[in-house]
Amino acid sequence: MTRTRAREFPAVFTLEERDCSINAVRDNLYLSQMKQFDANLLFALDALLETGSVTEAAEQTGVSVPTMSRTLTRIRKLIGDPIMVQAGRGLVATPQALEMRARLRAFVQEGRELTQLASPSLLDTARTISIRADESFISAFAAPIMDAVHLVAPRLALRFISHGEESVGPLREGVVDFDIGDIKLSGPEVKLQKLFAAQFVGVVRSDHPLASSKITPKRYVQYAHISASRRGLARGPIDAALEELGLKRTVSLSVPTFSSALTIAAGSDLVAAVPEHLTGIALKIYGAFVFPLPVRTPSVRIALAWHPRFDRDAVHRFVRDTVAKVCSPASLKQGSKHS
Question: Is position 204 within any domain?
Answer without folding.
Answer: yes
